[in-house]
Design goal:
Layout (H helix, E strand, L loop, with lengths): L6 E4 L4 H4 L1 H22 L2 E5 L18 H20 L9 E3 L1 H11 L1 H6 L11 H16 L9 H7 L20 H15 L1
Parallel strand pairs: 1-2, 2-3
Helix pairs in contact: 2-3, 4-8, 6-8
């Protein structure tokens, strides 16, 4: 007997949903290739709304505009993915958006210093440990309807990364800074507020 999944989490590259051509291609791939697997497993699809890049114009993204404009395009594209699946899925397994980019944008507008810490400083678009923590909080809230337990000590925060496959770019020798207790609490609250 094969195990079934409760959730299937999709993560497109950030420019994918922001661009019309790649958006259409992803919609087709979701319906043609992934929909049968979702139905077979009776799983809920969770599509991550990724975050606009930290620096404008990196990775040929100049035409996507400011942080707010870029994020708006990503959000619009992810919503189109949801729409492509919604009518083809039964009510019990309707797709969901994990609004990670919306949470990043909230931090951008309310705590710019922390927002800059959400990105890996080597490439300025992949998440740092802090960005990964925020993403994890948003995913948990999206899937389970409530936040995960909040780490209370630096040791608990460090344990979250104790078996991480990659903590830094190989060309940069030092490990990435982990979020502080205060930062973790702030991001935990952001995720909870964005998802509720």
């Amino acid at each position: 007997r094969r195990e079934k999944w409760d959730y299937v989490v999709f993560n497109d590259h950030t420019q994918g949903p922001a661009r019309v051509d790649s958006r259409r291609a992803t919609q087709e791939t979701l319906v043609e290739n992934y929909l049968p697997l979702i139905l077979e497993n009776e799983a809920t699809a969770v599509i991550i709304e990724t975050a606009a890049y930290r620096l404008p114009e990196i990775n040929n993204s100049k035409d996507l505009g400011s942080t707010h404009e870029f994020q708006g395009l990503v959000k619009e594209g992810v919503e189109s993915y949801i729409q492509a699946l919604r009518s083809k899925l039964p009510p019990a397994i309707q797709p969901r958006v994990a609004p990670v980019g919306t949470a990043y944008l909230y931090v951008h507008d309310n705590n710019r210093e922390l927002w800059e810490e959400l990105f890996d400083p080597f490439d300025n678009f992949h998440p740092s440990p802090s960005g990964t923590f925020l993403q994890g909080c948003v995913l948990h809230c999206t899937m389970f309807g409530s936040p995960a337990p909040l780490p209370a000590t630096e040791e608990e925060i460090a344990r979250l990364w104790s078996d991480a496959r990659v903590m830094h770019h190989p060309k940069m020798g030092e490990r990435r800074r982990l979020p502080t207790i205060e930062e973790a609490e702030y991001m935990w609250n952001v995720a909870n507020n964005i998802c509720s």
